[in-house]
């Protein structure tokens, strides 16, 4: 309720308590591909439709760094461990191929 009192008073910046979660949420919101910038009018239906689409995107398409760059949906469906393991397998394979490439194409001499 402390947050609600500050919002109702309109004190977002001056003398407002630190709200890192709110700031992080708005930062993510503003960087979302579905963010319209400004709403042309504050029609509740338009705003509700936007946030419905935003939360669908956020939970099903947006990769989250705190959970290993998987979506919350993948995490809740217990797919995250498999996805991360597959990424590590592919990365290891590519690193081996890169080492083979550079060892086969290494130039001799001091012309570099």
UniProtKB/TrEMBL annotation:
<dbReference type="GO" id="GO:0015074">
    <property type="term" value="P:DNA integration"/>
</dbReference>
<dbReference type="InterPro" id="IPR001584">
    <property type="entry name" value="Integrase_cat-core"/>
</dbReference>
<dbReference type="InterPro" id="IPR012337">
    <property type="entry name" value="RNaseH-like_sf"/>
</dbReference>
<feature type="domain" description="Integrase catalytic">
    <location>
        <begin position="22"/>
        <end position="72"/>
    </location>
</feature>
<protein>
    <submittedName>
        <fullName>Integrase, catalytic region</fullName>
    </submittedName>
</protein>
<dbReference type="Pfam" id="PF13683">
    <property type="entry name" value="rve_3"/>
</dbReference>
């Amino acid at each position: 309720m402390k947050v609600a009192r500050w919002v109702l008073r309109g004190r977002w910046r001056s003398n407002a308590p630190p709200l890192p979660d709110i700031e992080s949420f708005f930062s993510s919101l503003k960087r979302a591909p579905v963010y319209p910038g400004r709403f042309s009018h504050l029609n509740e239906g338009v705003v509700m439709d936007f946030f419905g689409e935003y939360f669908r995107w956020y939970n099903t398409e947006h990769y989250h760094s705190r959970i290993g760059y998987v979506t919350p949906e993948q995490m809740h469906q217990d797919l995250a461990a498999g996805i991360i393991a597959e990424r590590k397998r592919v990365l290891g394979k590519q690193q081996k191929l890169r080492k083979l490439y550079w060892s086969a194409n290494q130039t001799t001499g001091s012309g570099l």
